[in-house]
Protein backbone atom coordinates (compact mmCIF):
# COMPACT_ATOMS: atom_id res chain seq x y z
CA UNK A 1 0.00 0.00 0.00
CA UNK A 2 1.30 3.43 -0.90
CA UNK A 3 2.19 5.96 1.81
CA UNK A 4 -0.52 8.33 0.61
CA UNK A 5 -3.12 5.55 0.95
CA UNK A 6 -1.92 4.69 4.46
CA UNK A 7 -2.08 8.31 5.60
CA UNK A 8 -5.51 8.71 3.96
CA UNK A 9 -6.84 5.59 5.71
CA UNK A 10 -5.60 6.76 9.11
CA UNK A 11 -7.16 10.20 8.59
CA UNK A 12 -10.41 8.71 7.25
CA UNK A 13 -10.67 6.34 10.22
CA UNK A 14 -10.30 9.22 12.68
CA UNK A 15 -12.80 11.36 10.75
CA UNK A 16 -15.36 8.49 10.63
CA UNK A 17 -15.07 7.95 14.39
CA UNK A 18 -15.46 11.67 15.08
CA UNK A 19 -18.43 11.96 12.69
CA UNK A 20 -20.07 8.93 14.28
CA UNK A 21 -19.60 10.49 17.70
CA UNK A 22 -21.05 13.77 16.48
CA UNK A 23 -24.14 12.08 14.94
CA UNK A 24 -24.76 10.02 18.05
CA UNK A 25 -24.39 13.16 20.17
CA UNK A 26 -26.97 14.98 18.02
CA UNK A 27 -29.49 12.16 18.48
CA UNK A 28 -28.84 12.15 22.21
CA UNK A 29 -29.27 15.92 22.38
CA UNK A 30 -32.55 15.53 20.49
CA UNK A 31 -33.76 13.04 23.10
CA UNK A 32 -32.76 15.44 25.88
CA UNK A 33 -34.61 18.27 24.18
CA UNK A 34 -37.68 16.04 23.76
CA UNK A 35 -37.63 15.07 27.44
CA UNK A 36 -37.30 18.69 28.53
CA UNK A 37 -40.09 19.70 26.14
CA UNK A 38 -42.34 17.07 27.69
CA UNK A 39 -41.57 18.49 31.11
CA UNK A 40 -42.15 22.07 29.95
CA UNK A 41 -45.31 21.44 27.86
CA UNK A 42 -47.08 18.79 29.95
CA UNK A 43 -45.97 18.38 33.55
CA UNK A 44 -45.55 22.03 34.48
CA UNK A 45 -48.89 23.24 32.99
CA UNK A 46 -50.65 20.21 34.52
CA UNK A 47 -49.32 21.03 37.97
CA UNK A 48 -50.35 24.66 37.65
CA UNK A 49 -53.85 23.66 36.49
CA UNK A 50 -54.19 21.13 39.33
CA UNK A 51 -53.33 23.78 41.93
CA UNK A 52 -55.80 26.21 40.37
CA UNK A 53 -58.54 23.52 40.39
CA UNK A 54 -58.02 22.78 44.10
CA UNK A 55 -58.32 26.48 44.91
CA UNK A 56 -61.38 26.74 42.65
CA UNK A 57 -63.13 23.81 44.40
CA UNK A 58 -62.43 25.38 47.80
CA UNK A 59 -63.84 28.68 46.50
CA UNK A 60 -66.98 26.89 45.23
CA UNK A 61 -67.56 25.41 48.69
CA UNK A 62 -67.42 28.89 50.21
CA UNK A 63 -69.71 30.35 47.53
CA UNK A 64 -72.11 27.44 48.08
CA UNK A 65 -72.33 28.24 51.77
CA UNK A 66 -72.96 31.93 51.17
CA UNK A 67 -75.52 31.28 48.48
CA UNK A 68 -77.33 28.81 50.74
CA UNK A 69 -77.32 30.99 53.82
CA UNK A 70 -78.00 34.33 52.15
CA UNK A 71 -80.11 32.89 49.34
CA UNK A 72 -78.58 35.46 47.06
CA UNK A 73 -79.03 34.90 43.32
CA UNK A 74 -75.74 36.70 42.53
CA UNK A 75 -73.79 34.15 44.60
CA UNK A 76 -75.65 31.36 42.90
CA UNK A 77 -74.84 32.76 39.45
CA UNK A 78 -71.20 33.20 40.46
CA UNK A 79 -71.11 29.57 41.68
CA UNK A 80 -72.55 28.38 38.40
CA UNK A 81 -69.96 30.32 36.42
CA UNK A 82 -67.05 28.99 38.46
CA UNK A 83 -68.39 25.44 38.43
CA UNK A 84 -68.58 25.59 34.63
CA UNK A 85 -65.01 26.84 34.54
CA UNK A 86 -63.88 24.02 36.84
CA UNK A 87 -65.59 21.51 34.53
CA UNK A 88 -63.78 22.96 31.52
CA UNK A 89 -60.46 22.94 33.38
CA UNK A 90 -60.99 19.33 34.38
CA UNK A 91 -61.58 18.45 30.76
CA UNK A 92 -58.48 20.40 29.72
CA UNK A 93 -56.46 18.75 32.47
CA UNK A 94 -57.15 15.39 30.89
CA UNK A 95 -55.14 16.39 27.80
CA UNK A 96 -51.97 16.81 29.92
CA UNK A 97 -52.21 13.46 31.64
CA UNK A 98 -50.37 10.43 30.24
CA UNK A 99 -49.83 7.95 33.07
CA UNK A 100 -52.51 5.48 34.17
CA UNK A 101 -52.39 6.65 37.77
CA UNK A 102 -53.05 10.22 36.67
CA UNK A 103 -55.97 9.24 34.45
CA UNK A 104 -57.55 7.10 37.20
CA UNK A 105 -57.36 9.95 39.71
CA UNK A 106 -58.65 12.34 37.02
CA UNK A 107 -61.72 10.13 36.45
CA UNK A 108 -62.36 10.04 40.20
CA UNK A 109 -62.09 13.84 40.38
CA UNK A 110 -64.62 14.28 37.56
CA UNK A 111 -67.05 11.84 39.15
CA UNK A 112 -66.71 13.47 42.58
CA UNK A 113 -67.19 16.96 41.12
CA UNK A 114 -70.20 15.83 39.13
CA UNK A 115 -71.65 14.41 42.36
CA UNK A 116 -70.89 17.68 44.10
CA UNK A 117 -72.72 19.61 41.39
CA UNK A 118 -75.71 17.28 41.77
CA UNK A 119 -75.84 17.86 45.52
CA UNK A 120 -75.74 21.63 45.03
CA UNK A 121 -78.65 21.45 42.57
CA UNK A 122 -80.59 19.39 45.13
CA UNK A 123 -79.84 22.04 47.77
CA UNK A 124 -81.22 24.77 45.52
CA UNK A 125 -84.36 22.73 44.80
CA UNK A 126 -85.00 22.27 48.55
CA UNK A 127 -84.40 25.96 49.24
CA UNK A 128 -86.90 26.83 46.54
CA UNK A 129 -89.44 24.58 48.36
CA UNK A 130 -88.63 26.30 51.67
CA UNK A 131 -86.83 23.29 53.11
CA UNK A 132 -83.73 25.15 54.17
CA UNK A 133 -82.81 22.76 56.95
CA UNK A 134 -82.83 19.80 54.58
CA UNK A 135 -80.66 21.79 52.17
CA UNK A 136 -78.18 22.58 54.98
CA UNK A 137 -78.01 18.90 55.87
CA UNK A 138 -77.04 18.07 52.29
CA UNK A 139 -74.47 20.89 52.25
CA UNK A 140 -72.87 19.73 55.45
CA UNK A 141 -73.01 16.06 54.50
CA UNK A 142 -72.93 14.63 50.97
CA UNK A 143 -72.02 17.89 49.25
CA UNK A 144 -69.06 18.54 51.56
CA UNK A 145 -67.94 14.91 51.19
CA UNK A 146 -68.11 15.14 47.37
CA UNK A 147 -66.06 18.37 47.42
CA UNK A 148 -63.45 16.76 49.65
CA UNK A 149 -63.33 13.71 47.37
CA UNK A 150 -62.75 16.06 44.44
CA UNK A 151 -59.87 17.77 46.26
CA UNK A 152 -58.40 14.40 47.28
CA UNK A 153 -58.57 13.18 43.66
CA UNK A 154 -56.87 16.38 42.48
CA UNK A 155 -54.17 15.84 45.12
CA UNK A 156 -53.66 12.28 43.82
CA UNK A 157 -53.32 13.67 40.30
CA UNK A 158 -50.71 16.14 41.54
CA UNK A 159 -48.80 13.40 43.35
CA UNK A 160 -48.83 11.20 40.24
CA UNK A 161 -47.78 14.12 38.02
CA UNK A 162 -44.94 15.06 40.36
CA UNK A 163 -43.79 11.44 40.39
CA UNK A 164 -43.83 11.39 36.58
CA UNK A 165 -42.00 14.71 36.53
CA UNK A 166 -39.32 13.36 38.90
CA UNK A 167 -38.99 10.22 36.80
CA UNK A 168 -38.65 12.32 33.63
CA UNK A 169 -36.02 14.53 35.26
CA UNK A 170 -34.16 11.42 36.44
CA UNK A 171 -34.25 10.02 32.91
CA UNK A 172 -32.99 13.33 31.56
CA UNK A 173 -30.13 13.39 34.09
CA UNK A 174 -29.25 9.77 33.36
CA UNK A 175 -29.38 10.45 29.62
CA UNK A 176 -27.20 13.51 30.07
CA UNK A 177 -24.69 11.54 32.14
CA UNK A 178 -24.64 8.73 29.57
CA UNK A 179 -24.20 11.28 26.83
CA UNK A 180 -21.23 12.89 28.52
CA UNK A 181 -19.66 9.50 29.24
CA UNK A 182 -20.25 8.26 25.72
CA UNK A 183 -19.00 11.46 24.10
CA UNK A 184 -15.94 11.56 26.36
CA UNK A 185 -15.24 7.88 25.72
CA UNK A 186 -15.73 8.26 21.98
CA UNK A 187 -13.56 11.35 21.77
CA UNK A 188 -10.88 9.79 23.98
CA UNK A 189 -11.07 6.56 21.98
CA UNK A 190 -10.83 8.41 18.69
CA UNK A 191 -7.82 10.39 19.94
CA UNK A 192 -6.15 7.21 21.21
CA UNK A 193 -7.02 5.43 17.96
CA UNK A 194 -5.64 8.32 15.92
CA UNK A 195 -2.47 8.47 18.00
CA UNK A 196 -2.04 4.69 17.86
CA UNK A 197 -2.59 4.54 14.12
CA UNK A 198 -0.31 7.53 13.54
CA UNK A 199 2.33 6.11 15.89
CA UNK A 200 2.18 2.72 14.15
CA UNK A 201 2.51 4.35 10.75
CA UNK A 202 5.32 6.62 11.94
CA UNK A 203 7.07 3.68 13.67
CA UNK A 204 6.94 1.51 10.55
CA UNK A 205 8.18 4.38 8.39
CA UNK A 206 10.92 5.30 10.87
CA UNK A 207 11.96 1.64 11.23
CA UNK A 208 12.25 1.26 7.47
CA UNK A 209 14.18 4.52 7.21
CA UNK A 210 16.49 3.50 10.08
CA UNK A 211 17.23 0.21 8.37
CA UNK A 212 17.87 2.02 5.11
CA UNK A 213 20.07 4.59 6.87
CA UNK A 214 22.07 1.87 8.66
CA UNK A 215 22.48 -0.05 5.41
CA UNK A 216 23.58 3.13 3.64
CA UNK A 217 26.13 3.83 6.38
CA UNK A 218 27.47 0.28 6.24
CA UNK A 219 27.64 0.45 2.44
CA UNK A 220 29.55 3.73 2.65
CA UNK A 221 31.91 2.18 5.23
CA UNK A 222 32.42 -0.91 3.08
CA UNK A 223 30.88 -3.28 5.67
CA UNK A 224 27.58 -3.97 3.92
CA UNK A 225 26.94 -7.69 4.36
CA UNK A 226 23.81 -8.41 2.38
CA UNK A 227 20.50 -7.22 1.00
CA UNK A 228 18.15 -5.16 3.14
CA UNK A 229 14.96 -6.94 4.20
CA UNK A 230 12.12 -5.14 2.44
CA UNK A 231 8.40 -5.54 3.17
CA UNK A 232 5.35 -3.87 1.65
CA UNK A 233 4.80 -1.93 -1.52
CA UNK A 234 5.08 1.71 -0.48
CA UNK A 235 7.63 4.24 -1.64
CA UNK A 236 10.08 3.43 1.16
CA UNK A 237 9.94 -0.26 0.23
CA UNK A 238 10.61 0.64 -3.39
CA UNK A 239 13.55 2.75 -2.22
CA UNK A 240 14.82 -0.23 -0.20
CA UNK A 241 14.61 -2.53 -3.21
CA UNK A 242 16.42 0.04 -5.33
CA UNK A 243 19.06 0.31 -2.60
CA UNK A 244 19.51 -3.48 -2.62
CA UNK A 245 20.04 -3.41 -6.37
CA UNK A 246 22.53 -0.60 -6.04
CA UNK A 247 24.33 -2.38 -3.19
CA UNK A 248 24.55 -5.62 -5.13
CA UNK A 249 25.96 -3.80 -8.15
CA UNK A 250 28.46 -1.91 -6.00
CA UNK A 251 29.47 -5.15 -4.28
CA UNK A 252 29.95 -6.74 -7.66
CA UNK A 253 32.05 -3.78 -8.78
CA UNK A 254 34.08 -3.96 -5.57
CA UNK A 255 34.58 -7.70 -5.99
CA UNK A 256 35.68 -7.27 -9.59
CA UNK A 257 38.03 -4.47 -8.55
CA UNK A 258 39.59 -6.57 -5.80
CA UNK A 259 39.93 -9.53 -8.16
CA UNK A 260 41.53 -7.25 -10.72
CA UNK A 261 44.05 -5.89 -8.21
CA UNK A 262 44.72 -9.35 -6.85
CA UNK A 263 45.38 -10.80 -10.30
CA UNK A 264 47.43 -7.83 -11.43
CA UNK A 265 49.57 -7.82 -8.30
CA UNK A 266 50.11 -11.55 -8.51
CA UNK A 267 51.07 -11.24 -12.14
CA UNK A 268 53.45 -8.36 -11.38
CA UNK A 269 55.28 -9.93 -8.46
CA UNK A 270 57.23 -12.51 -10.48
CA UNK A 271 58.64 -10.11 -13.12
CA UNK A 272 59.39 -7.52 -10.44
CA UNK A 273 61.28 -10.11 -8.42
CA UNK A 274 63.27 -11.01 -11.52
CA UNK A 275 63.98 -7.33 -12.25
CA UNK A 276 65.07 -6.77 -8.65
CA UNK A 277 67.40 -9.78 -8.65
CA UNK A 278 68.85 -8.77 -12.01
CA UNK A 279 69.33 -5.19 -10.76
CA UNK A 280 71.13 -6.46 -7.67
CA UNK A 281 73.41 -8.56 -9.87
CA UNK A 282 74.14 -5.65 -12.20
CA UNK A 283 74.78 -3.40 -9.21
CA UNK A 284 77.29 -5.80 -7.71
CA UNK A 285 78.99 -6.35 -11.08
CA UNK A 286 79.20 -2.60 -11.81
CA UNK A 287 80.73 -1.92 -8.39
CA UNK A 288 83.21 -4.74 -8.92
CA UNK A 289 84.16 -3.27 -12.31
CA UNK A 290 84.42 0.20 -10.82
CA UNK A 291 81.74 1.60 -13.15
CA UNK A 292 80.04 4.19 -10.90
CA UNK A 293 77.53 5.25 -13.55
CA UNK A 294 76.33 1.71 -14.24
CA UNK A 295 76.25 1.02 -10.50
CA UNK A 296 74.05 4.09 -9.97
CA UNK A 297 71.62 3.01 -12.73
CA UNK A 298 71.44 -0.49 -11.31
CA UNK A 299 70.78 0.92 -7.83
CA UNK A 300 67.92 3.07 -9.15
CA UNK A 301 66.37 0.04 -10.86
CA UNK A 302 66.75 -2.00 -7.67
CA UNK A 303 65.19 0.64 -5.38
CA UNK A 304 62.33 1.33 -7.82
CA UNK A 305 61.59 -2.39 -8.08
CA UNK A 306 61.67 -2.66 -4.28
CA UNK A 307 59.25 0.26 -3.96
CA UNK A 308 56.91 -1.24 -6.54
CA UNK A 309 57.10 -4.62 -4.75
CA UNK A 310 56.16 -2.89 -1.48
CA UNK A 311 53.16 -1.28 -3.19
CA UNK A 312 52.07 -4.62 -4.65
CA UNK A 313 52.43 -6.31 -1.28
CA UNK A 314 50.36 -3.55 0.28
CA UNK A 315 47.58 -4.05 -2.28
CA UNK A 316 47.66 -7.80 -1.68
CA UNK A 317 47.53 -7.31 2.08
CA UNK A 318 44.59 -4.96 1.79
CA UNK A 319 42.75 -7.41 -0.47
CA UNK A 320 43.34 -10.19 2.06
CA UNK A 321 42.16 -7.94 4.88
CA UNK A 322 38.96 -7.14 3.03
CA UNK A 323 38.43 -10.88 2.49
CA UNK A 324 39.35 -11.60 6.14
CA UNK A 325 42.00 -14.00 4.89
CA UNK A 326 45.09 -12.61 6.66
CA UNK A 327 46.83 -15.39 8.59
CA UNK A 328 47.86 -14.13 12.05
CA UNK A 329 50.29 -16.15 14.12
CA UNK A 330 49.24 -14.97 17.56
CA UNK A 331 51.73 -15.33 20.36
CA UNK A 332 52.90 -13.19 23.29
CA UNK A 333 54.65 -10.20 21.76
CA UNK A 334 56.39 -7.29 23.45
CA UNK A 335 55.01 -4.16 21.78
CA UNK A 336 57.98 -2.08 23.02
CA UNK A 337 60.37 -4.38 21.16
CA UNK A 338 58.11 -4.16 18.09
CA UNK A 339 58.30 -0.35 18.19
CA UNK A 340 62.11 -0.57 18.59
CA UNK A 341 62.42 -2.83 15.53
CA UNK A 342 60.32 -0.43 13.47
CA UNK A 343 62.47 2.52 14.55
CA UNK A 344 65.63 0.63 13.65
CA UNK A 345 64.19 -0.21 10.23
CA UNK A 346 63.44 3.45 9.52
CA UNK A 347 66.57 4.85 11.13
CA UNK A 348 68.36 5.42 7.79
CA UNK A 349 65.39 7.38 6.43
CA UNK A 350 65.15 9.56 9.54
CA UNK A 351 68.87 10.27 9.48
CA UNK A 352 68.72 11.09 5.78
CA UNK A 353 65.90 13.60 6.39
CA UNK A 354 67.55 14.86 9.60
CA UNK A 355 64.43 14.15 11.69
CA UNK A 356 64.84 13.16 15.32
CA UNK A 357 62.89 10.01 16.25
CA UNK A 358 62.31 9.28 19.97
CA UNK A 359 60.81 6.27 21.72
CA UNK A 360 59.32 6.62 25.22
CA UNK A 361 57.54 4.07 27.38
CA UNK A 362 55.41 4.32 30.55
CA UNK A 363 54.82 1.04 32.38
CA UNK A 364 56.46 -2.35 32.84
CA UNK A 365 54.43 -4.96 30.98
CA UNK A 366 53.96 -4.31 27.25
CA UNK A 367 52.99 -7.84 26.25
CA UNK A 368 50.12 -8.40 23.85
CA UNK A 369 48.83 -11.48 22.05
CA UNK A 370 49.47 -10.83 18.38
CA UNK A 371 51.37 -11.43 15.18
CA UNK A 372 54.77 -9.80 15.54
CA UNK A 373 55.35 -9.29 11.81
CA UNK A 374 51.94 -7.62 11.36
CA UNK A 375 52.48 -5.34 14.37
CA UNK A 376 55.91 -4.31 13.04
CA UNK A 377 54.23 -3.41 9.75
CA UNK A 378 51.66 -1.27 11.61
CA UNK A 379 54.35 0.73 13.40
CA UNK A 380 56.54 0.98 10.27
CA UNK A 381 53.60 2.34 8.21
CA UNK A 382 52.72 4.92 10.85
CA UNK A 383 56.33 6.01 11.38
CA UNK A 384 56.88 6.10 7.61
CA UNK A 385 53.88 8.41 7.17
CA UNK A 386 55.10 10.63 10.00
CA UNK A 387 58.58 10.89 8.43
CA UNK A 388 57.10 11.56 4.98
CA UNK A 389 55.07 14.56 6.16
CA UNK A 390 57.61 16.05 8.57
CA UNK A 391 60.10 18.63 7.34
CA UNK A 392 63.84 18.27 7.99
CA UNK A 393 64.70 19.30 11.52
CA UNK A 394 61.33 18.10 12.83
CA UNK A 395 60.54 15.50 15.47
CA UNK A 396 58.68 12.19 15.52
CA UNK A 397 57.90 10.61 18.87
CA UNK A 398 56.65 7.08 19.52
CA UNK A 399 55.16 6.85 23.03
CA UNK A 400 53.94 3.57 24.53
CA UNK A 401 51.70 3.69 27.63
CA UNK A 402 50.55 0.71 29.68
CA UNK A 403 46.90 0.79 30.78
CA UNK A 404 45.13 -1.71 33.08
CA UNK A 405 43.60 -3.61 30.15
CA UNK A 406 45.34 -2.25 27.05
CA UNK A 407 48.43 -0.73 25.52
CA UNK A 408 48.31 2.72 23.88
CA UNK A 409 50.87 3.55 21.20
CA UNK A 410 50.99 7.21 20.09
CA UNK A 411 52.92 8.19 16.94
CA UNK A 412 53.17 11.97 17.04
CA UNK A 413 54.96 14.23 14.59
CA UNK A 414 55.52 17.92 14.01
CA UNK A 415 54.61 17.71 10.34
CA UNK A 416 52.16 19.52 8.10
CA UNK A 417 49.06 18.05 9.73
CA UNK A 418 45.85 16.82 8.11
CA UNK A 419 43.00 19.09 6.92
CA UNK A 420 39.93 18.87 9.15
CA UNK A 421 37.67 17.91 6.25
CA UNK A 422 39.92 14.93 5.46
CA UNK A 423 39.95 13.43 8.98
CA UNK A 424 36.60 11.51 8.67
CA UNK A 425 37.87 9.42 5.74
CA UNK A 426 41.60 9.28 6.49
CA UNK A 427 41.47 5.46 6.93
CA UNK A 428 39.52 4.79 3.75
CA UNK A 429 41.36 2.97 0.94
CA UNK A 430 42.76 4.79 -2.09
CA UNK A 431 42.28 8.19 -0.39
CA UNK A 432 45.11 10.59 0.41
CA UNK A 433 44.62 13.64 2.58
CA UNK A 434 47.21 15.77 0.76
CA UNK A 435 46.28 14.88 -2.79
CA UNK A 436 48.11 12.50 -5.12
CA UNK A 437 51.52 11.54 -3.73
CA UNK A 438 53.76 8.56 -3.87
CA UNK A 439 52.06 5.34 -2.77
CA UNK A 440 48.75 3.59 -3.17
CA UNK A 441 46.70 5.36 -0.51
CA UNK A 442 46.32 2.03 1.30
CA UNK A 443 48.82 2.49 4.14
CA UNK A 444 46.37 3.68 6.81
CA UNK A 445 43.66 1.33 5.54
CA UNK A 446 46.05 -1.61 6.04
CA UNK A 447 47.01 -0.28 9.47
CA UNK A 448 43.36 -0.06 10.49
CA UNK A 449 42.65 -3.58 9.20
CA UNK A 450 45.62 -5.13 11.00
CA UNK A 451 44.87 -3.33 14.27
CA UNK A 452 41.22 -4.38 14.19
CA UNK A 453 42.29 -7.94 13.37
CA UNK A 454 44.13 -7.83 16.73
CA UNK A 455 41.00 -6.59 18.51
CA UNK A 456 42.27 -3.03 18.78
CA UNK A 457 41.35 0.41 17.52
CA UNK A 458 43.15 3.24 15.75
CA UNK A 459 42.31 6.95 15.86
CA UNK A 460 43.88 10.18 14.69
CA UNK A 461 43.90 13.78 15.79
CA UNK A 462 45.62 16.52 13.85
CA UNK A 463 45.94 20.25 13.49
CA UNK A 464 46.90 21.68 10.15
CA UNK A 465 50.43 23.15 10.25
CA UNK A 466 51.21 21.76 13.73
CA UNK A 467 51.35 18.01 13.36
CA UNK A 468 49.47 14.73 13.69
CA UNK A 469 49.09 12.11 16.39
CA UNK A 470 47.88 8.58 15.55
CA UNK A 471 46.87 6.42 18.53
CA UNK A 472 46.81 2.63 18.30
CA UNK A 473 45.11 0.74 21.14
CA UNK A 474 45.85 -3.00 21.52
CA UNK A 475 44.46 -5.28 24.28
CA UNK A 476 47.02 -6.64 26.72
CA UNK A 477 47.92 -10.30 26.52
CA UNK A 478 45.60 -11.56 29.28
CA UNK A 479 42.65 -9.50 27.96
CA UNK A 480 43.23 -10.70 24.38
CA UNK A 481 43.51 -14.32 25.56
CA UNK A 482 40.26 -14.05 27.53
CA UNK A 483 38.46 -12.57 24.49
CA UNK A 484 39.85 -15.32 22.23
- Approximately what portion of the residues adopt beta-strand conformation? 5-15%
Class based on secondary structure composition and strand pairing: alpha+beta
Q: What is the total domain count?
A: 3
Query: Could you list the spans in which at least 5 consecutive residues all have pLDDT below 50?
Result: none
Throw out a few tags for this protein.
5-stranded mixed beta sheet, two-stranded antiparallel ribbon, Heat Shock Protein 90, single chain, 3 domains, 484 residues, 72% helix, alpha+beta, Four Helix Bundle (Hemerythrin (Met), subunit A), Helix Hairpins
Provide an overview of this structure.
With 484 residues, the protein is α+β, with helices and mostly antiparallel strands. The protein folds into 3 domains: 194 residues, Four Helix Bundle (Hemerythrin (Met), subunit A) (Up-down Bundle); 88 residues, Signal transduction histidine kinase, dimerisation/phosphotransfer (DHp) domain (Helix Hairpins), CATH 1.10.287; 153 residues, Heat Shock Protein 90, CATH 3.30.565. It has 11 helices and 7 strands. It has a 5-stranded mixed beta sheet with strand order 2-4-5-7-6. Helix 1 packs antiparallel against helix 2, helix 4 packs parallel to helix 5 and helix 7 crosses helix 9. The longest helix has 90 residues. The radius of gyration is 56 Å and the shape is rod-shaped.
